[in-house]
Amino acid sequence: MNKPAVGLGALLKADNDPVDSPAGRRAAKDAILSFFKAVATRDAAALARAITEDAIYEIPFSESGLTEPGAFRRYVGAEEVIDFWTATTANGPKSLGPEDVELSITADGSRVFIEQRGNMVLPDGRSYRNKYVFRFSIRDGRVCHVRE
Fold first, then answer.
1. Count of other CB atoms within 10 angstroms of residue 78
2. Measured distance CA(79)–CA(84) in Å, rounded
3. Could you tell me the end-to-end alpha-carbon distance of the chain, in angstroms, rounded to an integer?
4. Which residues pair with 120 in a beta bridge?
5. Pair 107, 20: CB distance under 8 Å
6. How far apart are CA 83 and CA 59, in angstroms?
7. Helix (H/G/I), strand (E/B), else coil: 66
8. Most buried in the list 9, 117, 124, 131, measured by CB within 10 Å?
């Protein structure tokens, strides 16, 4: 899935924008809704249906400051992604629902960005609030790559 590096200038000058597809955008929104609903309800079978078999979930935050592969959390394949979310939500925080949500979506629906504030309560009762930015890649109506 790694693409050759392209400079920002070249990307901004390029005219290869995605073709407009209202159906593609609707399918992308439905895929992300299914993904978040499966996570929120702790439904591993629904999560398996919402993601592709080769799904990747990355959390590229590294306390060390390293950005190389292996320096941050990365789950590859449906089984690893499902295991990650099963473990994370088993005794994890209770979501009170995201706040200040902004959604940006490509014309064809192949990529969706969501920026939001999380509002959760930890198992010990403490409040947990964080700012999240998600980049979802969608293929065939299912989530195939998430970068949080």
1. 21
2. 9
3. 17
4. 95, 128
5. yes
6. 15
7. coil
8. 117
User: H helices of 56-129, where?
Assistant: 78-90
pLDDT at 89: 84
Indicate if the pLDDT at residue 2 is higher than 60.
no
State the Cα–Cα distance between residues 55 and 132, nearest whole angstrom: 20
Between CA 139 and CA 112 the distance in angstroms is 12
90 token code pair: 């088993």
Band (pLDDT 50/70/90 cuts) for residue 113 is very high
Cα–Cα distances (Å) from 123 to 46, 52, 78, 91, 130, in that order, read 24, 31, 27, 7, 16
From residue 25, alpha-carbon distances to 21, 56, 67, 107 in Å are 6, 21, 31, 7
The arithmetic mean of pLDDT across residues 131-144, rounded, is 95
- Tell me: pLDDT of 1 over 60: no
pTM of the model as a whole:
0.84
